[in-house]
C-alpha cells in the first residue's frame, strides 16, 4: 500500500516540479501566456456588427514595428468604414508557438507575417496568393521573390521585405597589413595570412556556424563555389563534391587559425561586435550592419577615433565563379478560414493599402530592411543613397530553398555537419549521411 | 491523473454541506461533514493543479504518441514512432549522457559546498546577516542573467577573467577558456553549481538551526571532537533537510534550461545539450513537436523513478523524518 502511495506522491511531485521547472513540457504551455504580447486594444471586438473583421499576426522586427502597425491599424480603420482590422505584433521568439497554438485551437489569423510558409501549406491551411492579393499589387513584387513561395506551380505567399548579405571589411586593418580587398578564395586565404602576420590579436575572418544561423555560412560557401542545396529539378544535392569542397575550405580557414575562436558558439552578433571593436578584419553580414554598429557606438558613446573605418564588397568566390549574395525574405500569407467573398475583398484592400508605394517604403526603411517591390526599391534607393547598392544586390541574390518541406531538417542538418566538422569530423562522410537522411 | 482522484468525492457535497454547517443538529451529518471537510479545503489546489499542471502534461503525452505536423496539427496515433525515432537518433545517447553528468555533477558538488557554507553561516560571527544575504544573491538573480555574466567572464576576447589575470601579470596573452566542448560544459556545470548552492545552504541552515544546542554541550562534556560532533550529531539531524534539497535539486537541475541555452544552445553538435535543450531544439528549430514530446516523456519517466525512490524511502521511515 505504501509503495502505491509513494508512486502516486512521486508522480504528483514530479508533475508539479516539472511544470515549475519551465521548459520541461514546454510544447504546449507558452501559448497561454504569449498573447500578452499582443497589441493593447487590438483584441477588443468591433462594436458595430456590420464590420468585416480582419485578424493579422505580424512579426516584431525591432523596436519600431509595434508602433508602426498601431499607426497602420488606425489609418486603415479610419479610411475603411466597413472593415475592422486588428494587428497583433508578436516577437520572433514566440511567434511560431503563438501561431501553432492558434491553429490548434481553430483560431488561425486571417493574415500572417512570418518567414516560413511551407509547413502551413503542407497542412492545407493557406490560400493561393492570387486569391487574396489584387492583380495590381501582385504585379508590384519582384518575380524572383514570388518564385520563392512557389510550390507545384502555385504561389502561396507574398514577400513583405528582404535583407541581403555582403562582405564587410575594416579598411584600416587591410591597409596596414598591405592587403587588397579579396575577391577569390585564394586571395582571401592570402589576405588572412597577411593580417595574421601583421597583428596576431586580430581575427582575419569571421564565421558563424551556430544553431542561430549556421545555415547561412553553409550557403555563403556553397553558392560561391557554383553549387547549391538542390539541383535544377529541385532534388537535394547536399553531398555534391562542390559542396564538400566549399565546406572543407571554410573549415580549413578555422583550422589555420584565421577565424574567430569558436565558430560553433559565437553568433553573428558577437562577430558584429568584434568587427565594430576593430578586432575582426572581415566578416560576411547583412545590410543592417551599419545601423547596428552606429547604434552600438551611440550607446557606448565611443569616441570618433576609436570607431572603425569600414566598407563592404562582394562575397569572395572560388576561382571564376560569380559572387552570390545570400538573401533572406519574409512573407505575408493568408489562412484559409472559409472566407466569404466580401472578406476576401477586404483582405485585398488590406494588401493594396499596405503596398501603396509611399507607405511600403516607410515600412521597409522603418527597421532598415530592403524592399520586395520594384517601385519600393526605387523610392528607397532615392531616399537613402547608402541603400542604393543594396537594392541592386537584393534584386539578384539567392534564397534558401524554404519552399521545400524538408528545409527545416536540412537547415539543422547542415549546421550539425559544420559543427561536427569543426570538431574534426570528415565533411564528405557527414554530408553523405545527411544526404541519405534527407533524400531517404 | 493520480492527483485528481480525491477531487471527485469533494465536488458534489461541497456546496450543500458547507452552507449548512453552523446549524448541524444531528451527529451523523456532522460526521459526514468532518469526512468531507479536508477535501473541500484542498479542492481549489486540486482544481488548479488539474488545469495548469495535469492538462499540459496530458497534452505532452498525447503529442508524444501522435503524428504532429510542423504547423502543430495532430494527425492521429502513430504507433510510438516518435519514441523509436528519438531512441534511434545518435544524438540522443550523447544528450542523455550529458544530462546525467550535468545533473549528478551539479547536485553533488553544490550539495557538498552548500553544506559547508551552511556550517560556516551557522556560526556566530560579525556580519553574519550580511553574509547570509549575500549568499542569496546568486539564487535571486535570473538564470539567464547569471549565464550571460558567466559567458562574459570567460570570453576570450573581452572577458573579465582574462583582463583580471593580465592585470595581475599572471598571463601575458588572453587564454581561451573554452578550447573544446568539454571545457564549455564544465563552465556550464560551474555556473549551475554557483546558482544551486544558495538553495542547499538555506535548506541545511534551517535544519541546523532546529538542532538543540544541548546535544553539542553534552557531547563537549563527553569529550567529543569537532568531527565526531559533525558526523554523529549534525549530519544525522540535518539528513532530512539534505534529502529534501537533494531530491528537489535533482528535479530542478535535470529540467534546467536557461544556463545551457544562454551559454551554448547545446552547441557544438549536441556536445553540451541536455534533454531539455535538445527537446526545445527539436520542437522549435526542427519543428518536430512529436519527437520533442517523446523526449519530454522520457525525461519525466527518469525523474519519476528518482522521485519514487525518495518517496518509498521517506514513507518507509515514517512521516516524522520528512
How would you describe this structure to a colleague?
The complex is a heterodimer of chains A (440) and B (322). By secondary structure, chain A is α/β, with parallel strands linked by helices. Chain A folds into 2 domains: 48-163 and 328-399, Periplasmic binding protein-like II (D-Maltodextrin-Binding Protein, domain 2), CATH 3.40.190; 164-324 and 404-439, D-Maltodextrin-Binding Protein, domain 2. Chain A contains 20 helices and 11 strands. In chain A, the strands form 2 sheets. In chain A, strands 1, 2, 3, 6, 7, 8, 9, 10 and 11 form a 9-stranded mixed β-sheet that branches. Chain A has a two-stranded antiparallel ribbon with strand order 4-5. In chain A, helix 3 links the parallel strand 1 (52-60) and strand 2. In chain A, helix 16 crosses helix 17 (374-383), helix 17 packs antiparallel against helix 18 (388-396) and helix 19 (407-422) packs antiparallel against helix 20. Chain A starts with a helix and ends with a helix. Chain B has 322 residues and is mainly α. Chain B is flat and about 75 Å long. Chains A and B meet through helix 1, helix 4, helix 5 and helix 19 of A and helix 2, helix 10, helix 12 and helix 13 of B.
